[in-house]
Write a structure and sequence with these properties.
Distance between the termini: 28 Å
Helix content: 40-55%
Strand content: 5-15%
CATH architecture of the largest domain: 3-Layer(aba) Sandwich
Radius of gyration: 21 Å
Number of helices: 19
Number of domains: 2
Largest sheet: 6 strands, mixed
CATH class of the largest domain: Alpha Beta
Number of strands: 13
């Protein structure tokens, strides 16, 4: 019998870390504004001869076309209907809740990590005995609930400060010159002071705070003070963040909004597209984003793209690498029919083990996937991440999956926006970070 989403779980899910955080980590594409489907629509897919079919609710808008193509190739090869529906940017959780109430619900969906899983684990098929689980390169890429495996990561991603090598060199700097917040600030301040001479508009692209861009700062940048607090305290989550490194958060955010292509007062209306345009058109040297952004910026040329760690002024950060992790975990809907569950398990196994599937994930999607038959991606930003590891740098964990709710991030984003505009104070940001964390954690966990 189909489970119904209770009002309490609905409200928990609505406030949980999922949509923007999930789309943030996958690069909430500023080019995607609406749900996208293949030739079939959810609910009207014709079952295969065996009765099994797949409905994948995808949350990565920038990979929609690649998923549509891969689904079509699988259907042509096997006869199994695969429908891919892509949620609009920042609407994944809302779309998931709506679709799960339908008679033809997604057979394959995703959560962002432990917090997201807490809201959906009753809907997750146990993958512990699946062929997919057997292909994982490490148990660390699975989310567990006792002995059960309700979710498995299917992509590992990395973010940091992407830079234009040509512009950085023209300004008189190289990557080797920047290995701390102090050296990053010195270079950025100098570049900003000489922007007219260098023919650019600012050191950093605009730190847009509209919904297509704000996840970069209320989630990805906010990860750094959380990571260092967890590291210092020897923990992996907390019901009450202390804010030990919020002064460090302030100084990197201040650098972003002052050494920039625009005045801080206009950031509320600046979009993700604005930042991409500024970077691609060589109006700025630095651009905080991740490996998923490669398709947006590749016209600059692979040899011209570099990536720096996000330095915030913490002791020992010269040994810090890029921010690497996953909040992209596949879940199979245990409410689906046995035939649909098996069809879905077969499809995702094929994606990560077949030559055609792994090539599509590496070449078309630019993914690093944590499976034994993975093909090395052609995305040069992934190669840069590997170079840092080879040099002995310690990757920064993705701790933002422990943020207590989506509402917590929204309130932090609002406080950051007001601070940048001069209508709010940094104390308001601290309150949004610390006080709201405890409140939202209590609401989510009782």
């Amino acid at each position: 019998m189909k489970k119904m989403i209770s009002r309490r779980n609905f409200l928990k899910a609505a406030g949980a870390v999922s949509a923007a955080g999930v789309l943030a980590a996958c690069g909430s594409s500023s080019n995607s504004t609406a749900a996208s489907t293949g030739s079939s629509t959810a609910g009207s897919t014709t079952a295969s001869a065996s009765g099994g079919k797949v409905y994948y609710l995808n949350f990565k808008p920038e990979q929609d076309e690649a998923w549509q193509n891969l689904a079509a190739a699988y259907t042509e090869s096997t006869g199994v209907p695969v429908t891919v529906v892509t949620a609009a940017a920042n609407q994944y959780e809302t779309t998931l809740m709506s679709e799960m109430e339908k008679s033809e619900a997604p057979t394959l969906f995703q959560v962002n990590g432990p917090v997201g899983l807490a809201n959906w684990k009753d809907y997750c098929y146990d993958l512990s005995g699946s062929a997919l689980y057997g292909e994982l390169t490490s148990d660390s890429f699975a989310l567990k609930d006792g002995d059960a495996v309700p979710a498995i990561a299917y992509v590992i991603e990395t973010y940091g400060i992407i830079y234009n090598k040509e512009l950085l060199t023209a300004a008189g700097y190289a990557q080797e010159d920047i290995n701390s917040f102090a050296t990053l600030k010195a270079a950025a301040d100098d570049i900003q002071a000489r922007k007219d001479e260098l023919g650019i508009q600012g050191a950093f692209t605009s730190a847009g705070m509209d919904s297509s861009s704000d996840w970069r700062f209320k989630t990805h940048l906010a990860n750094l003070p959380i990571y260092y607090e967890y590291k210092a305290d020897g923990i992996s989550s907390t019901p009450a963040i202390k804010g030990t490194y919020l002064d460090n958060y302030k100084q990197i955010f201040d650098l972003y909004i002052t050494d920039s292509t625009c005045d801080p007062t206009v950031l509320a209306s600046k979009t993700g597209n604005d930042a991409v345009s500024e970077f691609v058109n060589k109006q700025a040297v630095f651009y905080q984003n991740g490996t998923w952004a490669y398709t947006d910026i590749k016209d600059l040329g692979d040899d011209n793209l570099g990536m720096l760690p996000i330095y915030i002024g913490v002791d020992g950060e010269e040994n810090q690498g890029l921010c690497t992790g996953s909040e992209n975990y596949w879940c199979v809907n245990n409410n689906s029919s046995e035939e649909d569950i098996q069809a879905t398990l077969d499809f995702i196994y094929w994606c990560v083990s077949s030559e055609e599937g792994t090539a599509a994930m590496a070449d078309d999607m630019g993914f690093v996937i944590p499976f034994k038959k993975a093909k090395a991606p052609t995305n040069p930003l992934n190669a840069i991440a590997d170079e840092y590891v080879a040099e002995g740098k310690t990757p920064v964990d993705w701790c933002f999956s422990t943020m207590p709710s989506e509402e917590w991030k929204n309130m932090l984003g609002s406080a950051l926006t007001a601070y940048a505009a001069g209508t709010g104070t940094w104390d308001d940001v601290v309150s949004a970070f610390v006080d709201n964390w405890a409140t939202e954690y209590q609401l989510a966990n009782g």
